[in-house]
Design a protein that fits this description.
With 161 residues, the protein is an all-alpha fold. It has one domain. 73% of the residues lie in helices and 0% in strands. The chain contains eight helices and no strands. It is elongated, with a radius of gyration of 21 Å.
Length: 161
């Protein structure tokens, strides 16, 4: 006689085993090559959407450093771009993937290094990078929920600051 309970129990047991098998062990998985491949993909997604805002921010920073002020239209455009960038960093696939990578490899610096390098690669000065990194909202966005952390591996893409 067929028993639905036995079928359900067997299905749940198989599902439970497959969930255990899909959880990566950071010590085995988080090689520099593995991290690099995934971080590059995530950063490509972020950079594609961040480039306009970073470009406008870089131009405004250069004007400010010369003692000039960006005009009203430039500031409105910068404000709009920064809002779009904030939305991307809060909800975008690239940032979600980067945070997942950081959690998987137990290394919160993956996210912060990648964002610092993104700003640097897009022409922001060190002074502007330091300003952005000190903003409470930026810290909230890139923060990843970690317990006690011991980094396991570094990606070549994740240069030291």
């Amino acid at each position: 006689m067929f028993r639905p309970f036995a079928l359900i129990a067997a299905s749940l047991a198989i599902l439970g085993l497959s969930a255990c098998a899909s959880t990566p062990d950071p010590a085995k998985v988080c090689t520099a090559e593995w991290i690099s491949k995934r971080s590059d993909k995530a950063m490509t997604s972020i950079e594609r959407k961040a480039k306009p805002a970073l470009s406008k921010l870089s131009k405004a920073a250069k004007k400010w450093s010369k003692g000039e002020k960006p005009n009203g239209f430039q500031l409105m455009s910068l404000n709009s771009s920064v809002k779009n960038l904030t939305r991307e960093l809060e909800n975008g696939r690239g940032m979600k993937d980067l945070k997942t990578l950081g959690r998987t490899c137990n290394d919160p610096q993956i996210v912060s290094r990648a964002m610092t390098n993104l700003m640097r690669d897009n022409g922001l000065s060190e002074q502007m990078i330091n300003f952005v990194e000190a903003l409470p909202r930026f810290k909230e966005i890139i923060e990843t929920d970690f317990g006690p952390v011991t980094p396991t591996a570094k990606s070549p893409y994740m240069r030291e600051s």
